Each structure stands twice: as C-alpha cells, then as structure tokens.
Amino acid sequence: MSNKVKSDEHSSAHGHGGRHPRLVHHFDSMEQQNEAGNFGMWWFLLTEIMFFGGMFTAYTVYRHMYFDAFAAASGALDIRWGAFNTVVLITSSLTMALGVYHAQMGNNKKLTMFLLLTVLLGGVFLGVKYIEYSAKFTEHIFPAASNFQWPPYEKPVAGHAETQQLADPVFTGHVKIYFFLYFVLTGFHATHMIIGMGILLVLAWQSWKGKFSKEYHSYIELFGLYWHFVDIVWIFLFPLLYLVDRHL
Amino acid sequence: MKSAISQQRFNRDGEPQTYLNNGHGLRSWFLTKDHKRIAMLYLVSVAFFFAVGGIYALLIRINLLAPNGLFESDTYNRIFTTHGIIMVFFFLVPAVPAVLGNFLLPIMIGAKDLAFPKINLLSWYLYIFGAAFTVIAVIAGGVDTGWTFYTPYSSTYSNSNVLLAGVGIFIVGFSSILTGLNFIVTVHTMRAPGLTWFRLPLFVWANYATSLVIMLSTPVLAITVSLLAIERVAHVGIFDPAIGGDPVLFQHMFWFYSHPAVYIMVLPAMGVISELIANMSKKNVFGYKLVAMSSLAIGVFGFLVWGHHLFVSTQSVYLGIIFSFLSFAVAIPSAIKVFNWTATLFKGSISYDAPMLYGLGFIGLFLIGGMTGLFVAAVGLDVHLTDTYFVIAHFHYVMVGGSLMGFLGGMHLWWPKMTGRMYPEAWARAAMVIQFVGFNLTFFPQFILGYLGMPRRYATYPPEFQVLHIFSTAGATILAIGMAITICYLIWSLKKGQRATPNPWGAAGLEWMTTSPPPTENFYETPVVTWEAYDFTVVRPEDVTGMAAE
Ligand SMILES: [Cu+2]
Questions:
Q1: How far does A248 lie from chain B, in Å, by closest CA?
Q2: Does residue B525 belong to the interface with chain A, where contact is any CB pair within 8 Å?
Q3: By the 8 A CB rule, do B251 and B313 touch?
Q4: Number of Cβ atoms within 10 Å of the Cβ of A96
Q5: Which of B29, B122, B338, B343 could disulfide-pair with B286, CB 3.0 to 4.6 Å?
Q6: Residue B298 included in any domain
Q7: What is the secondary structure of B318-385 as a DSSP string?
Q8: Which of B189, B234, B539 shows the shortest C-beta gap to A32?
Q9: Min Cα separation A197/chain B (Å)
C-alpha cells in the first residue's frame, strides 16, 4: 500500500539553492506565492465591499424614505470641490498604475517617483476634504453639534429654494440623517485613504532602497488594487452624496 | 511516501522531532508562525473563555432557582449579556475553525502551513486584543442589552458599557475575517499534487464554506457595530427615531451577520462530524459530493433568511412569508447531511470510542435543534414562541448540542495528533454520557417552559414554572461536572497519557500519514495524493500499531 504515495521529487530537486531569496519557506514557487497574495487581496477587497455595502444600504433606505430632505441637504455641499476631488483621485489612480508599470519593468527610481506622486494627490484630496468639513462646522450643519440647524447658517443652498424656508424639526431631523451618513461615508473613505498613504510612504521608501525587481514586486501590485478600490468607492460617493436631484 | 513511523526524525537529544519541541520558551510560542502552535494558543484562550462563559451560564441558572430571582434584575441583565457575548464571539465562532481548522487544514491538504502565517498570528493577537476590551467592559460593570445589542437599548436608553464591548467585537471580527481569508487562499493555492477538490476531506470543505460566510458577513457586523458606536459617542445616528431613524434597521443589519454566524458556528462542527462518522465506521461518507455541496448550499441560503428574527418587529407580513419559506429551504441541505451521516453508519464497522459517541450525540441533538428550528421558522407559530425559552432551547440544541459536541468530538479524535498522547478512553466515554444527560436535562425543560410562555431574559417568573427551572439548573450543574471531568483528564493526559502512534484510529486522511505530533513542516516529503477521500485501503498498518515493519 505504501508505494501508492510517491515522494515529490519535483520540489525536493530544487533544493534551497534554486529558490528566489524572497520566496518564503512554505511555498513551492514564486508563482504560487504571488497567486496566493493576489487571491488574498481580491478576497480582502470583497470584505471591504461588504463593509461599505452596509453603509450604502443604510443610505439607500433613508434616501428612499426621506428623498426631499436628502435632495435639499445635498444642495448644501459644494459641487465644485467634489468634482475637483474626483479628478484628483482619478489622476492618483493613473499615477498608481504607472507606478505598477515601472515596478514590473524593475525601475525602482520611477516607481518611487510615482508612488510619491500618488501620496501627494492623496494629500490634496484630504486637504480639500478638510476645507469641506470645516465649512460644515461654520454653517452649523455638523450633525453631532448642538448648534445644528436647517437651513444652514448664512449659506444659500443650491436649488430647492422652497425647502430652505422650512424650519420644520421633522425635516431637520431627516437632514441630520443625511449629514450623519455624509460624515460616516466620507469619514471611513478618508480613513482608508490615510491608511493607504501610510503604506504608500513605506513602499516608496523600500523602492528607494531598491527592494523591488522584475521578479519581486507583488506588494506594489497588491497595493495598487487597494488604491483603485478606494478610488472606486469615491466614484460612488460623489454622485450619491453631491448629486442628489441636481439638474444642469 | 514512506510510512509515517519510518519517517520519524530525531533531534540531538534523541527525542522525536515535533512541532512542540522545535523551540522552547515563551518567545517561541508568542512569536510563532507555525499554524499548529497558533492553534494551541487559540485552544488555551478559547478554553478560558468557554470556562468564563460557562460560569456566567451557571449564574443565570442559579438566579432562576427561585421565582423572584436571587440577583437584582439589572445584575441579571448583565449576567446573561456577558454569557451571550463571550460564548458567541469568543468561543463558538472561533472554536472549531481557529483551533481544529488552524491545526488540521494545512496538514489535511498536504501543505507546510497556511498561506499567510504572519496574518494567522496577527489574527490571534486581534482575538486577544478584542477580548481584552470585552473583559474590561465586563469588569467596568458589564453590558445590559443582551448579546444582540438591539437599539434603542444600546443607544438612546443605554446605561452600560456598550461602547467598550462593541469595540471588542469589532476587533475580534477582524480576527475571524483574517482566519477565513487564510483558509480560502490556502485551499485554493496550496493543495498537494493530486489532491483535487473532490478528494478534499469534508472537514476542509466545511471550513472552506465557513470561511466564505465569515468573509461576506463579518464586515457587515463591523459596520453595524461602528454605526452604533458612533451613535453612542456623537449622540446622533441613523437608528435614532427622534430624528426619523429606524431602530429596526439595526436588527436587519445585525441579523444579516448573525444568522450566517449561526452557520459559522455550526458548519465547521458538521465538518468534524463527517470525519468522525467516516473514520469511526471505516466507510467513505455516503454521498460525499452532496455533503460537500450541502456545506456551500447552507452558506448561501444562510444569507437569505435573516428576516426570520423579525417576524414580530414591523417587518411586512409578505416579507415574513418569504423569509419563512427560505428558512424552511435551508433545512434541506442540513437534512441531507444528517441522512448521509446515518446512511454512512449502515453496515460500517462502528467503534464506540468517545469521538464517535460525540458524533452520534451531535446527530441526535442537532436533529432536535434543527427540527425545532422549523417550528420557529413558521410565522404563525413564531408569533407565540418569539422571545420565549423555546427559542433559547432551540438554539442551545444547535449551538451546544451541535457545535460544542462537534468541537469536543473533534478534540478527542485529533487529541493524539495534536499532543502525541492518548486521552483516557473510559473517562472520556463517561464524561460524554454525563454531558449528554446534563445537556438534555438543562434544555429540554426549556422547550416546555417556552411553549407555556416563559419569556427569555426575565429575572423572575410565576411560581408554577419553578419545577422546570429547577430541572434545568440541575441539568446545567451535571453538564458543568461533565465538562470539568473532560478538562481534567485532557490536562492529565498531556503528561501521563499513553504515547500515540501516527494513526491510532486506523483513520484515513493525510493528517494520519505524518507523525503524532507532526513536525514543524508537517511532512518531510510533500505528499502526492492518488486516492479518493476516506479510502481506508491506503491506511498503513505500521502507522496504526506504531511498530515499524521489517
Ligand atoms: Cu436565524
């Protein structure tokens, strides 16, 4: 019976001499190691979809229930900043993709440059977000503040002139739900950006030190997937939050 | 591949090389990347929390000895909440996957480790970190909302440590996500040559399906708890009816995780039972493919039935009917498993060693748990049974009679593999019988109590319920004694147990083709699999007896 099992000559023939120095002990080949990393990243992103999905579900429920309030509240956001940030993030996806390209070419210098450029664009995005967030405080539409009011303090709201006049507490409550969701959604998105930028800085430093090569750059590719995912979340957030019932 | 016994290598002191003696001291354990050592870390921590949760269960039962209760109602609320939180999140969810799955999954597929060993270690630290928050919440005065954290108990009207406990559960959720991620990637990318999907042991299938469920459901719990936590801190949120929020949305989101979580708790135990039944009756599992696929089917259906927890909370009647129908449908794959296990026993050479006793216990108790699940899945009957002891009895038959029996059965089957020592068989059989009697005495009266209208989570009750409550408390005491016996002889066997041969049960599976306990790299040669699952003709007699053939 025991001869039913043959020794795996294939893996033992390689020995340790032929192994890539970055191949960890429990994998047989670089392909297997990269495949595992790639597969794991896609599954991780799936959990992220479920995480944001919970918030998007809540958004959908309340938008359906309180559409007028959502439309009015959305008018208090500055569409120009939102559009600007959308362009910034799409550009950062481009720089990230170029970084991955240069990683595949084994060009550490160019890779470092594009990673840093991506960090920079991420920083611009967060800077704009800071400007937008602080406006909510001065306009008294930060939902957790005791001075919350609707319509906003000294701020005309785009469209919906008729609803601006409503100082109805029920309507104001619904507007509060919109702003709660606005801060939670953009807040979790921004948290993902900040974590991503931290990782980007580490990767840029490693690439500056020449860690990556044509054979070994899977971390860059995996991180690229994450960064594109975070961008895509924003592509959903922008219309859902800024463009509720807006017309040209 | 030679027999395991002839492969045994020895270290400089002449001891057999095992994962246990490869490195000594705390550092070699707390910084280990070996899946087997991480499984042992999990075993110790999970056992600790099981004991803590068990003590809280006994406190519940002590309170209910007298109609007026022995504790203040507020104290009682905190006791049953702590029992629920600890047992669900810190015992039932991680028990089988993080201990047995962690230890066995790589060995069963002929791999040297899980795909991401560092992430595996991280997941244990996250578990401990999350547990620390929860323990602090308990020490700081506890939580009084019930383990379900329903709003507005947990938001507007909360006067306990919801935030701390919520943070703990958020963190421990990531721990199980990382375990699930590791399992899925490992099964996809690291199977030994020749080990095709339909040659995988059913335990691997069950853990694979569980991992899918973990990865798709746990993030929803994470965001639900986050939204609740933000509502607690900021005093504004989407579950607050004062501003038009809907507290029932919380229930929907919570059960979108927590119903699938029931399958996270019971599917891996079902995988254990498949191994027990096959190996203890020396037969291939009847309808192997159907049993494998039923795990996936349970995983998928499990996502579509959460509304059966909301039959009486503002959900529309039509939605209720749909959820009721789907809940009936999920019984089909569960029934397939039960029928196939019993069919496997037919004409098998059945051993009545402790693992098999647990296996048979599981089938009987899970049958009762599952069938009573149909009672509460029927909308009309559920209006009467919602939030009564009937529900408590139902899910304890599934969780304790199912998951716990499966976990203990698996611990006994693989104890020789994990520790290299046999447990004392007579003690184990006796303990199993004591636990079985104690369990039924605890929970069967609760079906009657619930049917008669005793609501769950009440600290007091009318005097006519006292006899049944006393039965239940007596049963819980017997169950606790049975558990204590098991813990004692397992610890005793670590030093004094008879040394285990590589394959003491004559069982099929790659884990029985390496030494007991296995070496750090699991196999000295990567196995090549040329046989189907549960093929007992490839069992080598010298591995069973431990005597090297000449
Ligand atoms: Cu359920």
A1: 31
A2: yes
A3: yes
A4: 26
A5: B343
A6: yes
A7: HHHHHHHHHHHHTHHHHHHHHHHHHHHHTT-----SHHHHHHHHHHHHHHHHHHHHHHHHSHHHHHHH
A8: B189
A9: 21
Q: Are B291 and B427 in contact (CB under 8 A)?
A: no
Query: Are B114 and B106 within 8 A, CB to CB?
Result: yes
Q: In whole angstroms, what is the distance from residue A126 CA to residue A85 CA?
A: 9
Whether residue B218 and residue A7 make contact (CB cut-off 8 A), yes or no, is: no
How far, in Å, CA of B105 to CA of B118, rounded? 16
Say whether pLDDT at B548 is over 70.
no
pLDDT in tens, A40-83: 999 999 999 999 999 999 999 999 999 989 998 998 899 999 99
Contact residues, chain A, for B216 at CB < 8 Å: 46-47, 50
CATH number of the structural domain spanning residue B78: 1.20.210.10
Distance from CA of A50 to the nearest CA of B (A): 6
Return the pLDDT at A129: 96
* Residues B538, A61: C-beta atoms closer than 8 Å: no
Distance to chain B for A35, nearest Cα, Å: 7
Per-residue tokens: B57 = 């269960």
pLDDT digits (tens, 9 = 90+) for B109-118: 999 999 999 9
The Cα–Cα gap between B102 and B400 comes to 21
Q: Which of B216, B223, B531 sits opposite A55 (nearest CB)?
A: B223
Contact (CB, 8 A) for B105 and B187: yes
Q: Do residues A65 and B244 touch, judged by C-beta distance below 8 A?
A: yes
| B96 alpha carbon – ligand 1 mean position (Å) | 20
Mean confidence (pLDDT) of chain A:
87
Q: Which residues are placed with Cβ below 5 angstroms of ligand 1, an ion?
A: B 259
Compute the distance from residue B386 Cα to the ligand 1 centre, in Å: 12
Q: How many domains does chain B have?
A: 1
The better pLDDT of the pair B411, A33 is held by: B411
B393 in a structural domain: yes
Q: Complex ipTM, two decimals?
A: 0.91
Answer whether residue B471 is part of any domain. yes
Q: For B172-191, write each residue's pLDDT tens digit.
A: 999 999 999 999 999 999 99
Residues of B in contact with A176 (CB under 8 A): 236, 243
Domain boundaries, chain A: 40-242
Shortest CA distance from B217: residue in chain A: A50
Q: How far apart are CA B163 and CA B402, in angstroms?
A: 31
The type of residue at B360 is L
The whole model's pTM is what?
Answer: 0.92
Q: Is there a contact between A57 and B253 if contact means CB atoms under 8 Å apart?
A: yes
Please give the pLDDT value at position B146: 92
Compute, in angstroms, the gap from residue B382 CA to the centroid of ligand 1.
12
CATH topology of domain A40-242: Four Helix Bundle (Hemerythrin (Met), subunit A) (1.20.120)
- pLDDT for B272 equals 96
Does residue A27 sit in helix, strand or coil?
coil
Indicate yes or no: CB of B219 within 8 angstroms of CB of A54: yes
Contact B501, B545 (CB under 8 A): yes
At residue A151, the 3 state secondary structure works out as coil
Which domain, by its residues, includes B326?
26-549
Helix (H, G, I), strand (E, B) or coil at A54: helix
Residue type, B147: W
* Interacting residues of B109 by C-beta distance below 8 A, sequence separation 6+: B186, B187, B190, B191, B192, B195, B200, B204, B510
pLDDT of residue A15: 42
What six digits make up the tokens of B404?
């716990």
CA B19 to chain A, closest CA, distance in angstroms equals 15
Instruction: Tell me the pLDDT tens digit for each residue of A124-169.
Output: 999 999 999 999 998 888 998 888 888 888 777 766 555 555 578 8
Which tokens in the block code for residue B535?
Answer: 């093929």
Query: Is there a domain that residue B9 lies in?
Result: no
- The CB density around residue B489, as the number of other CB atoms within 10 Å, is 19
